[in-house]
Amino acid sequence: MTTAVLADRQTAGGDDPSRFDPIESWYPVAYIEDLDKLTPTPFTLLDRDLVIWWDAQTQSWKAFDDRCPHRMARLSEGRIAEDGLLECPYHGWAFTGDGTCDRIPQQLPDAQAETSRRACVKSLPTAVEQGLLFIYPGTPASALQTPIPVIPVPMVDGKPTEGWIVLNTFRDLPYDAATLLENVLDPSHLPYTHHGSVGKRSNASPVELEVTSSDKSGFTGTWADGPRKGTLGRQNTTFIAPCLMWHELTSKQLGETMTVVYATPIRKGECRVFARFPFKFASKLPALFISATPQWYSHINNNAILEDDQIFLHHQERYLEQSGGSANFSQAFYLPTKADRFVFEYRQWLNDRHADPFPGQTFKPALATDKLLDRYHSHTEHCHSCSNAYKNLKTAKQAILIITLLAWVSTTVFALISGENALPSGLISIKLVVGGAIGWWGCDRLLGKLERGDRIPARNRK
């Protein structure tokens, strides 16, 4: 599918103009660059376990229910067979891209049990837009009538054009998609929550937000003064229901900048954030600096920013639930200033449109802090750049240890055999050991940052 084809389609959320059905929407589930065409990938969308895989026969990504119709084994534990079909790990049943069963190895040659509808796997509509894989969990026939939520940045094959640069990251978060959207729609928290990372308390000022339009499809708003005490100019905000928002501003200092967030609901209390940062700088120098920074290193910093509010948001949504939940937000929250105008509008939209994706469900008990700060399972192992860096750093650690040990032994043996003054050889040995220790420590420190976050956020260290 292409954006041009989708341009004239209806809004998401189903046909009822008064309600928004979260099932009838497209959701991003992965950056294409993070998917492996040779291996099935599991993902849970709206409490529904799916398997994502590359269909070589149609040259497209597919999404199935992650259950073999035979005895409900997880297909994501299987493999892509030699003929390009998705093969179940349990008994080798294999499926084509439309979910049809192609073979059942256990049946007799003249049997045709694979032709039964009961042998098929349910397939979900998929689409690739702006470098993201989207899945439509609702009625398949409605997928073509529903626009894919994309951002107003020109891209070709997922790559920005016309002078734009886009930084991308993602992470599985231990709180609701609604909690995430409420958080990122609020620009007034940045100077305090993110002080020392991407904010400064000294930049805090009165925040007067205004909603400029609102309907079933979302809302728009503006902050006339804008961030950093008005020095960057007006900031406009867009929320496209149910999962996309962005802030955008244009300034002489920075050029055109956007902060984009997709909030994909995994299950109650869990979501995957896709954060995109499009820039069109007035100067070429920042773009050169960004391009020179390895993606995995940028992701370490991105994860630290997410962790600035990760712990208290995990607990905040449970406190809200204890106070009556989102339906009672206006009483549970005290919102006396216009700084919370977008928060109010979003929560009111959720209630008025009956758009809660998990109605009647409750949160699980709160997680321990070390679980909340996990980076490896929530990001690193799923990220192509970070997982490769993790493997390379582990290899480098071992190599440094072995090389340092061999160099130290060789230097010592040479000194003993040659009978020369031991002092120069001793100094060389010390330098080798110290250099190796520094290299080993550096690799270990980076590995730690790919595995877990810091308990003390930047704002409390300064």
Secondary-structure blueprint:
Layout: H1 3-6, E1 27-31, E2 41-45, E3 48-55, E4 60-65, E5 79-80, E6 86-87, E7 94-95, E8 101-103, E9 123-124, E10 126-129, E11 132-135, H2 140-143, E12 155-156, E13 159-160, E14 165-173, H3 177-184, H4 190-193, E15 209-215, E16 218-223, E17 235-240, E18 244-251, E19 255-267, E20 270-280, H5 285-292, H6 295-307, H7 310-322, H8 329-332, H9 341-352, H10 369-372, H11 384-418, H12 422-451
Antiparallel strand pairs: 1-11, 2-3, 3-4, 4-9, 5-6, 6-7, 7-8, 10-11, 12-13, 14-20, 15-16, 16-17, 17-18, 18-19, 19-20
Helix pairs in contact: 3-9, 6-11, 11-12
Structural write-up:
- The chain has 462 residues and is of the alpha+beta class.
- It contains 12 helices and 20 strands.
- Helices cover 30% and strands 23% of the residues.
- Strands 14-20-19-18-17-16-15 form a 7-stranded antiparallel sheet.
- The longest helix has 35 residues, at 384-418.
- The chain is globular and about 90 Å long.
Give a brief rundown of this model:
By secondary structure, this protein is an alpha+beta fold. It has 12 helices and 20 strands. Mean pLDDT is 93; it is low at 1-9.
Protein traits:
single chain, 462 residues, alpha+beta, 20 strands, globular, disordered N terminus
